[in-house]
Design brief:
It contains five helices and 17 strands. By secondary structure, the protein is α/β, with parallel strands linked by helices. The protein has a seven-stranded mixed β-sheet, covered by helices on one side. It has a seven-stranded mixed β-sheet with strand order 8-9-10-14-13-16-17, with no helix packed on it. A three-stranded mixed β-sheet has the order 12-11-15, with no helix packed on it.
Amino acid sequence: MVRAMFAPFPFAGHELALGQGRALYWPAERALLVADLHLEKASWFASRGQMLPPYDSRDTLERLADAVRHTGARRVITLGDNFHDDAGALRLDAHCTGMLEALTRSLDWVWITGNHDEALPRGFGGTIVPELELGGVILRHEARPGEAAPELSGHYHPKLRVAVRGRHIARPCAVLGRAVTGSGAGGAERMILPAFGTLTGGLDAGHPEIVGALQPARAIEALMPAAGRIARFPLWQAAA
């Protein structure tokens, strides 16, 4: 059973759970899904003269390992942009390399490639694919406008801006598009996951690029886990 930090919700006839740490758990598949790790982003910027704290990869991998332990996942599926660039794997320090090798060795690991890492190196364990179908749901890096099948993707790093006690804050969120009334039975739901990686930034959840990527849709909403439940925030509604 997924513990309280993961909030369950129905999706395309399945029960999934969204975690406060930005991972998605699929209990029936014992699979943990994460999007946009962007490992070695800080070192990429450092090579161009913009100095950032060089601990993003370690933090990302430690949070990923925690999510695996918390859920008891036996499978990890990454939804692309795993490294910030094609040479990112070569810049990992020994500690992070060891962590990643241990994770990919102990789990059924699937790397889905993205636009930042099309030439994902094969030096680590796991299977490398451009996309994957699981339980009737297509898993890919970037949402495909016009897709008629259920879909889980990443790429856009959605964040929701909310007002809390008079302050406006931005938090990573998932964005769900529905092409039919209700949930799951029509199999027409598509969702963009939040970016899992440290230092990944984000795009406003209601940005036209995100809304456009999930078309056709009747309604689009942001999803955030809160106290073991899913909080839903309407973003867009088709004209009647």
